[in-house]
Specification:
- This protein is 28% helix and 31% strand.
- The chain is of the alpha+beta class.
- The chain has one domain: Nucleic acid-binding proteins (OB fold (Dihydrolipoamide Acetyltransferase, E2P)), CATH 2.40.50.
- It has a five-stranded mixed β-barrel.
- Strand 2 and strand 3 form a beta hairpin.
Amino acid sequence: MKFFRLGSIVLAAVVSVSLLVASGPKKYGKDLTLKEPTKVADILANPEKYQGKLVQIEGKVTDVCAKMGCWIKIESGEGIEPVTVKVDDGVIVFPLEAKGKIARAEGIVSVKTMTEAERIAEAKHQAEENKKLDSFDPSTITGSKTTVRIAGEGAVIED
């Protein structure tokens, strides 16, 4: 009888530890190397300063690529638009469940000015990936725009 109780206690301990480990942050790609995140507002205010540099950003995941998990959008809560962290297809796959969770991501900043036609094509592509083509309206996109993306190398998403 004592053996049965001891076995039950050990099993309960193993299950408890497993649940704690399973509910911790999830790592994707390379380990994060920078100690402090850069404010998204700082990057967007002066994108040329960060062009080609490794940065870490932190914030809430507002969207995830539904087709291949190849990008996430991170909102910093600073009242500005989210930044897309794009990874190579299949190298890192972000889960759809990441939406709404807090993430830290590192990568190289890329700044590009997109023409109106490029912006429409990009928005259409994202609508197709997210199965939202029926709500895609190209007339809402006008003019060129400078966009900032991060070529993602690694991320940690809180559970």
